[in-house]
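Data deposition worksheet. Section B asks for the primary sequence of the deposited chain exactly as it was used as input, without tags or linkers unless they were present during the calculation. Section C holds the resulting structure in token form. Section D is free text for depositor observations; keep each observation to a single sentence. Incomplete worksheets are returned to the depositor.
Section A, Depositor: J.P.
Section B:
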Amino acid sequence: MLSLCLLAPLGHACSRVLWADNGRLVLAGRNMDWIDSMPVGLYSLPRGLDQDAKTGPNTMKWKSRHGSLVAGSPAGVVDGMNEKGLAGHMLWLGVADFGKYDPSRASLGVGHWLQYQLDNFATVAEAVADMRAKNYQVVPGTFDGLKSSVHLALEDSSGDSAVIEFLDEKLSIHHGRQFTIMTNDPPYGQQLANLKQYKPFGGSKPLPGTTAAADRFVRAASYLVDLPKPGSDREAVGEIFSVIRGVSQPFAPVDAAKLKAGQPHTSPTRWRTVSDLTRKIYFYESTMSPNVIWVRVDALDFKPGAGVRKLEVNGPTDLVGDCSGGFRESKPFGVLSPELK
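Section C:
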């Protein structure tokens, strides 16, 4: 059964691609690859929400400065963008090392990590400066039986970008427009070094063909540099979708050995998003639906007191088109409990 949102034309484990130099739109696409269906909803979060990371005596607390549209799951916010044009994506990184929990340091749980950025900052530069200045600790938890080992990508409407990782208990940030691709393991510096072995990035190796994270990184980078200049906004969105779909993972049995080793990113793609940071439109596509839906962020009510609202994307009907008016009052989604030990 089809539920039509608009009768009009418009045109963890995962991959993220940023396309900011096409001359029309700043676009970021991401796949969510996971071991199970990972139920997700799209939530509208207004300004003025009180947030508490609940990580002990020095937990971080704040009131949201900016409204946001997020993909919320039982783990917390894993993807989304705010009304200022800052977007973020949490992806799996098996070798992430946040360090031992230190109750004397300011901290927030991994389930709040992305939401904190969207609530407080308008640009990548602001978020990066805050991370460096506050030196806060991110506290992981357990999700689907796995320790929440992740890294974070941010981009904004100017095309600025950052990839943020915790390695050997230390914060590592790659900040700049040139950091357009992110997948999973190995760490980002090693991914960049590996990329140089391939055409057209200075090496002689042909494009790799597996769905391993390092191979997806290379293919996404290659597909991105080959994209033609779009003749319209519609074409631009279609082209970034073509890249992110091209590094999707097909449905197949989950590799038990890799899962046991803490590498769930060898899992099927469950859904994907494209964040249009120029026009502030958020596209969502489930791999179980033939349709793409979108939400115009500027059409959402972010006034203080507006309350949390949800667009149900896992119901018995398939949505299609502009679903900006489909949000309904909702309880806040759950957030992964940090492990304070």
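Section D:
Residues 48 and 64 are 5 Å apart (CA to CA).
The chain is about 20% helix and 30% strand.
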